[in-house]
Design a protein that fits this description.
The structure holds two protein chains of two kinds. By secondary structure, chain A is an all-alpha fold. Chain A is built from seven helices and no strands. Helix content of chain A is 77%, strand content 0%. In chain A, helix 4 (91-123) runs antiparallel to helix 5 and helix 4 runs antiparallel to helix 7. Chain A is globular. Chain B has one domain (3-223). Chain B is 83% helix and 0% strand. Chain B is built from nine helices and no strands. In chain B, helix 2 runs antiparallel to helix 3 and helix 3 (50-78) crosses helix 4 (82-88). The model of chain B has no long low-confidence stretch (mean pLDDT 87). Classes of the chains: A mainly alpha, B mainly alpha. The A-B interface holds A 86, 138-139, 141-142, 144-145, 148-149, 152-153, 158, 161-162, 164-166, 168-170, 172-173, 176-177, 179-181, 183-184, 187 and B 148, 151-152, 155-156, 158-161, 165, 168-169, 171-173, 175-176, 179-180, 183, 199-200, 203, 206-207, 210-211, 214-215, 218, 221-222, 224.
Chain lengths: 245, 225
Amino acid sequence: MSVGSSEMQTLPSNPEPDRGRPLWLDILGITTVILVLVDLFGALLWVPREVQMGDVQRIFYFHMPSAWLALGPAFTVVFICGILYLWKKELLYDRIAVASAEIGVVFTTITLVTGPLWAKPIWGAYWTWDPRLTTTLVLWFIYVAYLMVRSSFPEGHRRARLLAVVGIVGWVDVPIVFMSIRWWRTIHPTLVSAQGMDMDPSMQAMLVFSLGVFTMLYVYLMVVRVGQETVASRLGRISQQIHIR
Amino acid sequence: MGFLTRIWAIAWKDILAELRAREMVLSMFLFGFLVILIFNFGIEPGLREMNLVRPGVFWSAFIFAGMLGLNRSFAGEKENDCLQGLLLCPVDRAEIYVGKFLANCVFTIVMGFFVFIFFAALYNVDVLAVGFPLAVIVVLAAVGFSSVGTLFAAVSVGLKARDVLLAILLFPVMVPVILAAAKSSGVVLDGSGLGSAGLWLGLLLVYDVVFFSISVVTFEYVVEE
């Protein structure tokens, strides 16, 4: 590239001046923090104690929402954004996909840690090869691999394309993994099966509230993370141009 | 040149290179043999429940040895920029994929055949009785393994730690294949026919069709420069 006056004009590649964080993001953040504290209070102190399981059942209000978020929206967003990226070639979709994959891995980790903590006193074992448990573990591996591939590539369209393909294959694999493990376990029945719970109305309310709070936490983390990725890629472009100069 | 001729030309290029060099299938097979040997040290000799263990031993050897082949599949193309030449060929990207897939499938099946012979000898398997049904399972599993495997080998080829990353990417996605193959061959090794493993064979077939289709469609995005 030649150094000329035309290039000098393209240098300030910061089309919109940085206005700092928008106010609504701060409001969303503060609200989320308050609601998370309320959620902690509700789940640990307010909601009545489960008669048979005791206090350990309270972990359910964190376990179930994080499992739902990871297995439901988080990884589905990765899949949909993968398709959208391949279709539209917009790097924004890649940023949304990776933010969602990261948060999904965090929530899956929470699920995989809280589950065994509950299972040890209740089932008598940290782990069983139940379809849901096993599928969650396989899912965790798939998306950790996704993030590892991402971290070993330089930023750009090539990485976004590869990740979109990995995200699509991984997501399609999930139901097949689940079915295969379910058949495996129906042939060799396990001692422990998922038990239905008759829940007190206040417990149900607590669960719904907790689900709402976790969803809000997911949305907030997504907004922050996508923003970070956008800033990082802009920074990368600027420093590239400085090097070219 | 017809569709099939073009695919075969790409697959034959890989097979011919292997026939001349004779390094990959041989090392895959030796590695698979070693895995079986190592398992042998971990398992009590004369174990009464040997039937429960045998399928796991064979499929572990199969998957680990298969990985070696997949790693070579695109690494060889990267040397001397052969991949560039391949992409410049006047053929569809999907046809390149199918050609590479076909070659990988052939290597995996040949490797599986040789590993099976040693497995049968060491684990007292009646080859005549179970040979045909097991061959069917090996072919179905090799198709599933090579379909995602070829796609992910192309994904990981540009990476520094590509061998490890390919394994980390591929194994979780392979869970249904490993499970279905191990379960159905367990049924077959127990002396029942293929019919009793219908559910698992169906799963393998569905997996093969689904992931072969996805790979054919998405491969062009992976190799696009």
